Every structure is written in structure tokens, then in C-alpha cells.
Amino acid sequence: MDFIRYAEAAAALLNADLSEVDGLVAYLDGRPGLQERAVDRDCMLLRKLQRELRPVFDAGESGDVPAVVAGLNELLARHPITPQISDHDAQHLHLHVWTGSGSVAEQVVGESLLGLSTLVCDLGADRLGVCSSAPCTNAFVDASPNRSRRYCSDRCSSRSNVAAYRARRRAEAERAGSFIG
């Protein structure tokens, strides 16, 4: 199991539009075995997970480690998972999540929780973030070496930097205008 990939997928899940199965299918891009089994019930269960995971990312953004740990522990208790070693690629043994029922939602929940829990234990709760570009509220996982990520995407980073640049230019112009008069 690539826990960073699973944790990033959990953040992407928070940002996904799961109002219809098409949104879930889009989220599951590259996973045809899950895409073909996605149903409305999976969307309903994953929307609930979105609501439950949001406070965990908010707590990570604010540096509230006890809230991150408590939130993840509560979710792990409610959604039991069984990690198993996969040998489908004998050169790269890794963990997969087994949930018992085989539903798409339970698979995604299991991967999300195990990925986030492992990430928090190995790299820290401060790796969970919420975009700093207003009005965006997308969640993200900061896998950068120096823990410097503040935005969910390059688009939001650029938008924020351009807005800051324009604000500085306006302030400079206002200061210059006050000296002339």
C-alpha cells in the first residue's frame, strides 16, 4: 500500500462531487474494477464519509493533533478494515485493504482511513491541510519535503499569488498618489 497515494485519494474524495454515480466514477478514474460496480448507495455512504473526514482535515490545518487522532480513531472504530499483504507483484509486496463486503464505498473508506492513519503516524498530522486560497476549501495532503504546501493546486496557488501581487501594486499606487497631492 502506498499510504501517501491513499491519503491523497482521501483528500481528493473530500473534494469530489458525489451527488451522482458519475461523480464517483470520475473520482475512481483508473480503477475500472471499482468504476463498473459503483452505485447510488456508494455515493450516499461516501458523502457521509466526506462530512466525517472534513473536521479531521480542518484539525490538521489548525495543528490540532489530538483532534486529528481522535477523529481518525473514531472512524477506524466504526469502519473495521483488515490490511493484507498483496503479492500480485512479487517484486513489490504491499498492503491492500480488505473490508469484507466488497462494496465500492467500503473499499474506498478502508483505503482512505488506513492511508490517512499511516500518513499521520509516519509524517505528522500537520500534513493534512485545507487550501489557503479564498474562497477555495479543498482538502490536500502535504507530501512536500519541507511541509510548505498551502494550496490544493497550482491553480489556487497562482490565483492567490496574482491577487497578492495586484494588492501590493494597488497599495504602492495609493502611497505614490498620496505623496503627489
Automatic annotation (TrEMBL):
It comes from the Bacteria. Pfam families: ABATE (PF07336), zf-CGNR (PF11706). It comes from Nocardioides conyzicola. Residues 127-169 form the Zinc finger CGNR domain. This is CGNR zinc finger domain-containing protein.
